[in-house]
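Justification of computing resources. Each target in the renewal requires a structure prediction run like the one illustrated here; the chain below, 279 residues long, is used simply to show the kind of job we budget for.
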Amino acid sequence: MEHKYILETKNVTKIYDSNGMVVRAVDDVSLHIKAGEFVGLVGPSGSGKTTMLAMLATLLRESEGSLMIDGQDLGEMSDKERTKFRRERIGFTFQSNNLVPYLTAVENVELMLRLNKKGGRKARQQAADLLTRLGLADRLDSLPSQLSGGQQQRVAIARSLIHDPSVVLADEPTASLDTERANQVVGIFADLIHEGNRAGIMVTHDLRMCKYVDKVVQMVDGKLAHVITDRAEINALADNSEYASYSEPKKDVATYPEPILLKKPTLRHSDLSPIPSGD
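Resulting structure tokens:
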């Protein structure tokens, strides 16, 4: 049976008990993502984005609702089955790159293939080819400590894609990059998601990066607040400097912006160029 969506959630909720009080970190969220669709997940701090991403990555179990990837219900899997599924079918990169410090760039990327028992010369070449596309041809044999923050992030992105996952998740992949590198990396990231016919989700506070996605999903107070699919509206959101980013509130302070208000669309086309090897 062929499934229309690679990723689908139905009424997903995550509940925590905080000092006797029920906290709904994610509250009744339903969304679906098709093959080859790249989604931007946005919202202020405390809106539930990271918790949602952790559930999609099978790192957290949902309290209520269902979560399907490739037609398989993650809630029905044992912990062992979820670990195997995550290793084989999900790629993810978080704000901290978590590169293995004593492995070179190409070895860090190749590691995902080895974990899936697909090592060897072919795996090494595959890792090298992907890093080359991300502008790191002259850094294949460098250790993480010899790479800049931006270069480390690109290695992490390559590692998230190398095993051909069905779903790719990225939590603030441009956090350590300047504007030029951020645009280049997210542009290439989007291309790889589209070419591989994967489902991709990127959490970001930088709304300018939304110009590379096909859909924008906004969360506020754990709930799904807005879903934007119109290309002109997405471009307007990315181009409108008034809503260029969500500011980070102080911890334990629940401050949220008003829901997204879109002004008249201003279309702009960005040309992607190959990423040079420098940072």
